[in-house]
Structures are given as C-alpha cells and as structure tokens.
C-alpha cells in the first residue's frame, strides 16, 4: 500500500439534482463538471410525454438522438420467457433513454418490478454455475467472442455487438467482468448483459470483475448511479445487483485450451500445517510458521473449483484468497509469484508462472483483462493499451493476453489529454479456438453528455491502493 488517499471520496451530489440530461448538446466533452455544479434541468422526455422526437429511419443506430421514442415502460414478457426481440428492444430503449431521459426518471423506462424479474432470473442462473465455467461442445461453425472491461460505456458495448455480431446459436460470448463503475451507464450495460444471459444462458457467459463488488461500486460510481436511477427504490435495486455480483463465476475455460478470468492466475490453498504431537509442539511451532509465510505457489483448477466465491468483497487475508487473486492479480515480467503490493490484494505473476499454468493444465492461451490505459501507463515493463490489448507473455506452451474493451477510457477524466485508446475484443475460431483474432475499435462519438457518479478528479487513480480499512468497515 502506498500513501494515496486512504478514505472514500466525498459523497457524490444528490441524485435528485443530477438530472443532467442528454441530447441538448451532444458535442460537449465527456469531462463534464460534477452533477452538483450544474443547475438541474427538466428531462426532455418523461413517461408522461408521449411525444416522439423526429424520427429518421436512415439514422444509424449509433446516432440514436433522433431515434423515435420506443414504447416505455418496458414490460416483462407475460410468459416470463425472454426473446431476441425483447433483448433488442431493451437495447434500443436504453440507447434512446441514455440520450433523452434524465437519470432520475430511469425507473419510468425500466420499472422496478421488471428490473427485479430480470435480475432474479439472471441471478438464479449465475449462482448455479461453477466457479470456472467450461465452454465446450463447440461445433465447427461456432465462434467465441471474448470481451474485456467495459465499465459502463453502454454505447461502446452496443457498437461492439454490432461489429462482432450479437450472441446467437453459433456465436458464444465470454465477458471478463468489470461491467460497471466509472462510465455513466453501468446499470444499463449490466442489465443488457443479464438479458442476454437469461435469453441464451449457454451462449453468453458473464464472469466477475473486481468492480462487481461492494467496495468498488461504493467508490467508483455504480452505487450512486443506481441510487440516482431508482430513487427511493435505489437501495433495493443496488442490493439486488450486489446479490447478482456474488453469483458471477470467476473464470472460464473455452474449448479446453483457453483460460479466461478478469485478473488472472491465483495461489494454491496453503497446506494446512500438520500439528506436531503435543510434546513436540512448542519446539516445532516456529518452523511451521516459517513454512506458512513462505508458501506462495500457483493454484490448481481443482482448488479454483472449490473456492467460495459468494462474497460481497473478496477477502485479501484469511483462508479464502482465490477469488481475490482471480479478480485482482496482474502479470509482470519478473519471474515468480509475489503479493500485488500496488493493489493491496491479489498477486503478481511472472512468465514462468504463465508457462507452468499453461503446461500443467494443457492450455494454449490465457486471456485476462483488468488493466486499462491508465494502469498500463504506470507499468513500464508492459505494453500500452492503445489498441485495446497486449500480448504480455509468450512462453513455450502459449501466450498470456490482456484484453480491454472500453475505448476512450475512462469516460470522465480530469485532464484535457485523453488516452484515446481503442477497445478490443477477441474472436476464437474452430477447429481449436486457441488462436486469438484481435479486433480493435474506436469509441462511439459523441457520447451523450451526462454527469459522473463519482468524484473522478479526486478518487484514487486506477484500482491500485485498495483501501483495505474502508473495505473492512464496509462489510
Ligand atoms: Mn478490473
């Protein structure tokens, strides 16, 4: 841990006053002032208004400012079965509402009972999945699309879908986590992904990121966003989201040869020291302690399968360390396995660990995410995120890749100079699904102008320096 700010950022402005809305000036920069600085405005459209904006059938989906108003509120299908049409309608409605409806009116677009039904249906599916989902039985005409961090940048996620194609019978999707926080549409983004999960549970796989936690969402905006969008039902909605986060699986193995997870590799459970017989106990105790502190070995897929993932915040100490490692760890060029001191949780692992993990489990590829352009700026030994991905380790058995899918990240930045990074996704193709095909893409411009839900100028930079004290208090 370094000496960065050790406390939570100041509370974000009152959700009720953050009715900064859309569409009025789409050319305005994303670096908007915080909500409290701007006078409240009336929403351009509310549910009581049925007037539609001028429609233009020739407008592309990405300039939805002129799209006709969809039917709101969205309702849950009477038979409880989601269809492709329903999911596409949800997408079109969120795209429209992100430009035309004040965040404080979001409940009138997706009413709480519909939100509840969707989150419940998804939670049930997710909680049943194993820690490491195995994506097998792929047919020769299937492809698998792997996606990294998206961080609430709804419009970029929708662009990614249009470019890569939507989930279908023969197009699988694996998302590596970090759906929410920082970007202003974490709720819409997460709900769209949940809708795909519910509609195609065996084609769409949603893994957990470190931001799908109570700690991160209380610091980086998602909690405030949900409170703003669901008003007096906000706490209820936020709790449901947290419950769903707890169910998200930690990792995937695609076609037997590709391991994906948000952070990456993880330690093995420490061997439980055998207590010596009573008479020798005192004498041997010191030796055992020494062994315990020195034991940091790579974990196995078997240990991963047995970890307890259902925690609001993965612990950084105690017995249940695998979830925190999988969600928070980073690769390094330095050989070996060591504590990730920069982040205060998780591990750093070297190319030798990548090689031994690949070899031991007969894998060809590790695809992890977790590091954007800001994080990589501070890690001289590793590549930058300009193209949305880096190849970090190339070993005898295969490769380690970092994949980041939020272009022009972060949405809100305190400096004039932006990273202007591309986002990327990976397509895996038959027969072996183990050769990554990289696709980089630019951000959708302009983004609707909205206010951030966290104090982006003062919040601790990147994910580093996890504030363990506040995390403990937060539980
Ligand atoms: Mn992350």
From TrEMBL:
CDD domains: MPP_PP7 (cd07418). GO terms for molecular function: metal ion binding; protein serine/threonine phosphatase activity. The keyword Hydrolase applies. The keyword rRNA processing does not apply. It comes from the Eukaryota. Residues 15-35, 46-60 have a biased composition (Low complexity). Its EC number is 3.1.3.16. Residues 1-79 are annotated as: Disordered. It holds the Pfam family Metallophos. Keywords: Hydrolase, Manganese, Metal-binding. It is an enzyme of class 3 (hydrolase). Its cofactor is Mn(2+). InterPro entries: Calcineurin-like_PHP (IPR004843), Metallo-depent_PP-like (IPR029052), MPP_PP7 (IPR041754), PPP_phosphatase (IPR051134), Ser/Thr-sp_prot-phosphatase (IPR006186). This is Serine/threonine-protein phosphatase.
């Amino acid at each position: 841990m370094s000496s960065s700010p050790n406390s939570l950022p100041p509370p974000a402005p009152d959700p009720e006053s953050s009715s900064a809305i859309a569409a009025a000036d789409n050319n305005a920069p994303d670096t908007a002032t915080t909500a409290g600085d701007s006078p409240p405005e009336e929403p351009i459209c509310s549910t009581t208004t049925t007037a539609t904006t001028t429609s233009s059938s020739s407008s592309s989906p990405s300039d939805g400012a002129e799209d006709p108003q969809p039917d709101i509120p969205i309702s849950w299908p009477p038979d409880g079965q989601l269809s492709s049409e329903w999911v596409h309608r949800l997408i079109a409605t969120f795209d429209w509402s992100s430009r035309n409806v004040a965040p404080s009116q979001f409940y009138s677009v997706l009413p709480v009972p519909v939100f509840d039904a969707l989150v419940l249906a998804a939670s049930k599916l997710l909680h049943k999945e194993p820690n490491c989902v195995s994506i097998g039985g792929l047919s020769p005409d299937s492809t698998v699309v792997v996606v990294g961090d998206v961080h609430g940048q709804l419009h970029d996620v929708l662009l990614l879908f249009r470019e890569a194609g939507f989930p279908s019978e023969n197009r699988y999707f694996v998302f590596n986590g970090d759906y929410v926080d920082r970007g202003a549409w974490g709720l819409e983004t997460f709900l769209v992904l949940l809708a795909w999960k519910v509609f195609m549970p065996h084609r769409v796989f949603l893994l957990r990121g470190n931001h799908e936690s109570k700690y991160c969402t209380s610091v980086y905006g998602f909690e405030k966003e949900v409170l703003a969008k669901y008003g007096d039902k906000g706490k209820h909605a936020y709790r449901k989201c947290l419950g769903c986060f707890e169910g998200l699986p930690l990792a995937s193995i695609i076609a037997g040869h590709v391991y994906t997870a948000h952070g990456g590799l993880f330690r093995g459970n420490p061997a439980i020291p055998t207590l010596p017989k009573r008479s020798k106990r005192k004498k041997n105790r010191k030796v055992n302690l020494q062994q315990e502190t020195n034991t940091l070995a790579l974990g196995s897929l078997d240990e991963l399968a047995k970890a307890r993932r259902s925690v609001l915040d993965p612990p950084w100490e105690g017995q249940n360390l695998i979830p925190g490692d999988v969600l928070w760890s980073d690769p390094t060029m330095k050989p070996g396995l060591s504590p990730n001191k920069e982040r205060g949780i998780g591990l750093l692992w070297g190319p030798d660990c990548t090689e031994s993990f690949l070899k031991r489990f007969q894998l060809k590829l590790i695809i992890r995410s977790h590091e954007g352009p800001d994080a990589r700026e501070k890690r001289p030994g590793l590549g930058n995120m300009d193209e949305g991905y880096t190849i970090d380790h190339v070993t005898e058995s295969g490769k380690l890749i970092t994949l980041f899918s939020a272009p022009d990240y972060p949405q809100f930045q305190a400096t004039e100079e932006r990273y202007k990074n591309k986002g990327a996704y990976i397509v895996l193709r038959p027969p072996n699904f183990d050769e990554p095909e990289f696709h980089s893409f630019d951000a959708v411009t302009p983004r609707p102008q909205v206010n951030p839900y966290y104090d982006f100028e003062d919040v601790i930079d990147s994910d580093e320096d996890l504030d363990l004290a506040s995390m403990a208090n937060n539980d």
